[in-house]
Amino acid sequence: MSKILLIAEHDGTALNPSTAKMVACAAQIDAADIDIAVLAESASQVATEAATLDSVARVLTVEKPENKYALAAILAPQIVALADGYSHVFGPSTTFGKDLMPRVAALLGVNQISDVMSIEGSHTFKRPIYAGSVVVTLQAATDTAVVATVRTASYSAVGGSNSAPIESVDVDVDLPQHTRFIELQAGSSDRPDLQTATAVVSGGRALASEENFGMIYALADKLGAGVGASRAAVDAGYVPNELQVGQTGKIIAPDLYIAIGISGAIQHLTGIKDAGTIVAINKDEEAPIFEVTDIGLVGDLFSILPELTEAL
Amino acid sequence: MDKILVGLKRVVDYNVRVRVNSDGSGVETDGVKMSINPFDEIALEEALRIKEKGAASEVIVVSIGGAESQQQLRTGLAMGADRAILVETSGPVDALSCARALLEITNREKPGLVILGKQAIDDDNTQTGQMLAGLWGRPQATFASHIELDGDSARITREIDVGKEIIEVDLPAVVTADLRLNEPRYVKLPDIMKAKKKPLDEIPLADLGIEASQQIDQASFEPPADRQKGVMVEDVAGLVAALKDKGLV
Question: What is the ipTM of this complex?
Fold first, then answer.
């Protein structure tokens, strides 16, 4: 039987939606016993939320003042202590999990599997490589713990009608002092979160300015959608980094994705290929984005965008 | 600081459309253009800028792989690195073995900073820097978009999902470079000539006491599921109708 430990991502007050998707992935492993670990300064609020997730057996809390900020160097040794007896330790394939889980794996002396997109067996997994151009099937050793990150865009969140027991765990390990949190500069937005929005409107280099990107926001607001961007638009400074979608940004799976003025480099497409419906508006009918779109419209975005926003 | 160590990985060039080979045992690499992993190029550029500001005296580039990785190390030397180390092995090297090899080199060279790319664009693993930092027992600052050195510590701006996070780390530390850390310089012809004379040491992986383990077996490779090509609409009215038809608006 598999015993799986999931590392919850949270901001101290709320559980990140990636956790419920991770549970969905773990639940695909036969006869799995799934625990969630919440490492926090004060864990009760987040743990209470985690305990509602279906398929979860227990929620373990580790409360320490040092856990106020999610610093990998501080969290990793605690997770190593918690991991004893587990066959699998999973984190989300978000910047939180990508930062943390390889350090955990190294301390455990094992390799790590990144971006699990499909469970084929308790130790057999599929994951994308080469910006999603290739899918590789991996067979992990069965005599060591499997440490992995879960490609959350491949999974839908589990339901929340559970009431798993919450247990506080004492973890007595030395924590390093060499890494200190200074500041978080988070974009404040009332718009739906890019990674959980059911609809996302994204803009590319063709928007040509930060000011013009306002048209993307206007359409998104009309649809109640999140806003994304191509790497080119972020590099050009039209929007902040957290909006980047693609191989090196966010991997998303909204029901509706509207790509505006985005040519569709493979590095961008890998971030959206799980979207339900992909719509593209581009002036170049040869743009590679049209190879993956469900609905395409060739034309000038500066005339189409206001008309579309008006029409909806 | 005395030295900065930078890792350079030889990968299929980012412009190449990678395909699975005919028997599904790997990807087509015959005649395919190979380059320095773009994130590693950014890592090297940052090290060079730190040295040029006078905050470091030597930049060492290291690669782990076959003899052909010398090409990427020579390019790194042409960009401005002072010397190169090739940890030579013919077989595939997983991320943990790679981190162990880098730790050995780190213990020998004692750099004040190790800068690696945040991920390699072939396996997209995003692991090696974190693993090295863990094995080394030193700080890690992943996804860096800005580095500010201040004596024995550094302030690093990290690009994370919710925005930007600034952390302070004591040196030595491992930093992994994100896209917006800098824009790497172009290599000039005279520098390519000069690079041929710079030292490039070769060390067999086994001499570091490391076996290229394969705890994770890459059993088979396949192309991803294709999305079906959809319809083109003529105008905004057609688009709105198509969206309504799918119940999306």
Answer: 0.95
